[in-house]
Amino acid sequence: MSEAVQMTEEQQQQWIREQYQVATKYLAEKGVVTDSVKVEDSRYLVPLLALWKLKALNGKSYWVLCGDLPSDHSAVDVATDARDALRHFALKWQVQAENLLAANSKEQEEFAHLLISRAEGLYKLYEDDALWQQK
Question: Per residue of the chain (135 residues), what is the pLDDT tens digit?
């Protein structure tokens, strides 16, 4: 296992800003223009993942996941908080991976295994009570 990369506070803040840009660009590519971010509901695990609660110009809100994993989004009503949103993405990715593997597509097999790996990691984070303690 590789050693954890030590980042300064400034580097961590830069990473968070970059992930915000990744998230808003990802949504824009889906045809959704971001209006605002609900920072108090968003969570970051630098440098692994950022989970944003974003409001779009159309009035809808979304959970957007990005970082060292595939970017993804879901309507905000799939989860009451960031912890539940992580669980949602973990389960969603497991189902997507199963569907890809069932299709017997060699091109999609590698991506399916990536989804399974990342889904398992997300679920472990969801289950880790220490990560979710209020500070």
Answer: 334 568 899 999 999 999 999 999 999 999 999 999 999 999 999 999 999 999 999 999 999 999 999 999 999 999 999 999 999 999 999 999 999 999 887 788 999 999 999 999 999 999 999 988 865
93 burial type by CB count under 10 A (0-12 exposed, 13-18 middle, 19+ buried): buried
Other residues' Cβ atoms within 10 Å of the Cβ of residue 5:
8
Strand partners, 56: 34
d(CA 90, CA 21): 23
The encoded tokens of residue 74 equal 């879901």
Q: Is the peptide bond before 70 cis (omega within 30 degrees of 0)?
A: no
pTM of the prediction? 0.89
Residue 61, φ and ψ in degrees, nearest 5 = -115, 150
DSSP 135: -
